[in-house]
Amino acid sequence: LLLDEPTNHLDRESIEWLTKHLLSLTGVTMGIVSHDYDFIDEVCTDVTHYDNGGQLGKPCRFVYYPMTFSEFQKLKPEIAAGLPRIDSGPPKSASQPASEVSGSEDVSELSESMSSVSVSESNASEGSGLSTTLAKVDEMIAAGLILPMNFPDPGKPEGIRTFRKPVMTLKKCSFKYPETDRYILKEVDATVTLGSRAVIVGGNGSGKSTFLKLLIGDLEPEEGQGEMWKHHALRLSYVAQQSLHHLEDHVTSTPIQYLQARFRQGLDAEVAKLKSIALTDDEKAEMEKGSAIYAIVGRTTKGNKPWYEFQQRGKMKAETQSLPFAEIQLRFPPYVQKLIKNYDQKAQAIESGMAIRPITEAEVLKHLGDFGIDQQLAFGKIRQMSGGQRQRLLLFAPLLSKPPP
Predict the structure, then answer these.
(1) Is the dihedral of CA 379, 382, 387, 391 positive or negative?
(2) Dist CA 128 CA 135 (whole Å)
(3) Strand ranges (DSSP E) for 66-212?
(4) What predicted TM-score, i.e. pTM, was given to this entire model?
(5) What pLDDT is attached to residue 125?
(6) Which among 158, 402, 405 is positioned nearest to 266, based on CA atoms?
(7) CB 156 within 8 A of CB 163
């Protein structure tokens, strides 16, 4: 039984069930790749570490340790301390088995570790586990063993002067899928500011991903139930939980070619596919009728309210009309709001420099390098990249448009 990161999308109850199930199996050999060290300490009897001894350019090899992870931690604390973690707590003490550490002790250990972190050399030399790990990471970055990540400076979006001003809101929004009567979300309210740093927690199936899709416009609320709003100057990027499908049509391309294709029109093609932005065939047909609005050509602000300039069928292109967004919402079909969102996307691209910055090989290569994708990977085929490397590519590709963090 081979399991590759089996706990990544599981809540704690599901992980506990999986652990019990695996322990109940007999006559089964398991190979598990995981960053959830509490899980592998309970399930695994042996550890295999893939390593090159910290020597740049030296091929990695498997080193086998016939012991549990907590025993491996005691034997090789310098390796265990530097391993990445995605689970619920800080690395447990190498002198204490994982099963003996309670949740409250986890919290206190984290507090003590964080309180000792300082930029001064004196604190770094005091020997705290976290300081030692950070120093080790700095050494590995300097040696080229770890590639650092440098986020682009997005600047401030037009018309947003403070970090407390809302940039996205949901009001009394409800959602259910067409094939069921059960609401996934019921009368949900949410406000996002530039200063928001929010994590959404909850069990599997509770609606976390559905909420995010509703917030960013990949899903739309039930008709007549709730309001969605996004500041017209906000640049938006979205990385879905299951995002690897974005690369399916590009596996024979290089990462450079993938980004050039994705942003070749100065816009993120993946954002343009969101349901709240993409026009349906029926909506395209509606645009051809009578005096229908078929293009948004300008935007201005009057009294802190956005006004949009548009063109209509049956009139000369120079015969444009401007109305406030609130009035357009009331007077015209919903597809016009999609035209407005598409116009806002183009305006945001110009503001970020995307629409006027050439997506040259050198420009894209620099962006990839900022996020740890070196030249060897950037010029190689995507199909040759590991799962983790592909995920890194997808995670940082949207940041080419410099969305606010």
Answers:
(1) positive
(2) 11
(3) 166-175, 185-193
(4) 0.57
(5) 39
(6) 402
(7) no
Tokens 């929004």, residue located: 173
Mean pLDDT on 327-335: 87
- Residue 321 burial class via C-beta count within 10 angstroms: exposed 0-12, middle 13-18, buried 19 and up: exposed
- Where do we find the tokens 């009368």? 187
Whole-angstrom distance, CA of residue 239 vs CA of residue 243: 6
Which positions ≥6 away from 353 have C-beta within 8 Å? 402
Question: What per-residue confidence (pLDDT) applies to 122?
Answer: 38
**Placement of tokens 């440098």 in the chain:** 150
Question: pLDDT per residue over 251-273, tens digit each?
Answer: 899 999 999 888 877 677 777 77
DSSP character at residue 320? -
CB count in 10 Å sphere of residue 160: 17
271-287 confidence digits (pLDDT tens):
777 777 778 888 888 88
Angle between helices 361-370 and 255-262 (to 10 degrees): 110
Residue 1: HSE in the Cβ half-sphere, 13 Å Cα cutoff: 13
Neighbours of 296 (CB within 10 A): 23
DSSP string, 246-272: GGGGGTTS-HHHHHHHHTTTSS-TTGG
Burial of 167 per CB tally in 10 Å (0-12, 13-18, 19+) = buried
137-141, 182-186, 228-232: least confident range: 137-141
